[in-house]
């Protein structure tokens, strides 16, 4: 245990996700010995993120105004809507440069063990957007794990009867991996998703 | 870490009850093992797409694994997963069936809550949990019946199954019309506390069939009877739990395949 301010900083850092007590201590002492200008920039960035950043009122991505950058872009199509769990998934898909539609950020996946049900996610808002009739295809891009798949299944069950095309991202073999090392589920999925060559 | 302590490798098979993210690419998995009871272990690097272990350490799977740590729990309280092979990944069959996914979640949360002490062998509960996930994935019976059968039998292991064929208070044999969760199940007219429920005789019949594994009776039960039975089982379970189960209110009782 240290005294006063340095221990306060260690405690606060230790509450961050993925930061253990040892890392918290290392970061705290790094801050202590860093250039004051660098520390000020960090402090400003921390304050600004809480003051300026909010959630887009349309898609629930992070935004610095009423709507996020994607929702404001007039060149993108409203006909394709891509459903993701978190804002960081929007960033990952944007990096591919493959997608020109809009997003809907659920804010997580359905996980009964953690007490997260459909009502805890932005699903009602999704139904409202889909209900306007402008969306022709819904792409379910939730994580390829049990919670993400179950969430996609739940949404498909709910939205397919509304008459639009619902698709799921193909989940193939990781590039650079050997077939024999692929796990059973990924390999099975790769077979299901095979296409003509 | 005590002086002279060495991490041992040991093998066991287990059901994956819960998976939580840790840091950038690791996971903490809660396992119900056959020989070492419930334990938590860290799996390093499994969230990287290059990891073969990731899919095997998803919830609801039956896996064969090698753990590093002390089976007696010396040293670090977290064991680590060093090898894992799939026996049967039941989670796979719940991916396309949302109601069964919610039922499987309730089964796993119950198993976790009924094993409050880590590394205390719970062989019967392990077998019951494995059997329930297998039945749920086989799809021969309605998912909510499989769940209720599991809950009734798990409560029996814990020593607080509801009384069905005798009065919970005085033990008088026979099917009684009243049911009281605080009193412990069926109650005779003499012992019946105020506010007791009066379930239909078929509902108590279903509870009894689920407890004894009489699937012919259970499968033939009417939807209204199943609903009433689920309600009583859930109320009984929640009454005995210190904290309410999070997953139980989220169980989707619709049937997709049946
Ligand atoms: Zn937006
Ligand atoms: Zn009595």
TrEMBL record, chain A:
General function of this protein: May play a role in DNA repair. It seems to be involved in an RecBC-independent recombinational process of DNA repair. It may act with RecF and RecO.
Record keywords, A-Z: DNA damage, DNA recombination, DNA repair, Metal-binding, Zinc, Zinc-finger
CDD domains the UniProt entry points to: TOPRIM_recR
Database matches in NCBIfam families: recR
A single BP term in Gene Ontology: DNA recombination
One function term, GO molecular function aspect: zinc ion binding
Annotated protein name in UniProt: Recombination protein RecR
Name of the gene this protein is made from: recR
Span of zinc fingers (C4-type): 56-71
Domain of life the protein comes from: Bacteria
Pfam families attached to this UniProt entry: RecR_C (PF21175), RecR_HhH (PF21176), RecR_ZnF (PF02132), Toprim_4 (PF13662)
Residues of the Toprim domain: 79-174
SMART domains: TOPRIM (SM00493)
InterPro entries referenced in this protein's UniProt entry, alphabetically: DNA_Rcmb_RecR (IPR000093), Rcmb_RecR (IPR023627), Rcmb_RecR_Znf (IPR015967), TOPRIM_dom (IPR006171), TOPRIM_RecR (IPR034137)
Family that this chain belongs to: Belongs to the RecR family.
From TrEMBL, chain B:
Pfam families: RecO_C, RecO_N
GO biological process: one example: double-strand break repair
InterPro entries: ARFGAP/RecO, DNA_rep/recomb_RecO_N, NA-bd_OB-fold, RecO, RecO_C
Domain DNA replication/recombination mediator RecO N-terminal: 9-89
Keywords: DNA damage, DNA recombination, DNA repair
Superkingdom classification of source: Bacteria
Cellular component per GO, a single term: bacterial nucleoid
Role played: Involved in DNA repair and RecF pathway recombination.
Family as reported in the entry's similarity comment: Belongs to the RecO family.
Protein name: DNA repair protein RecO
Gene name of the encoded protein: recO
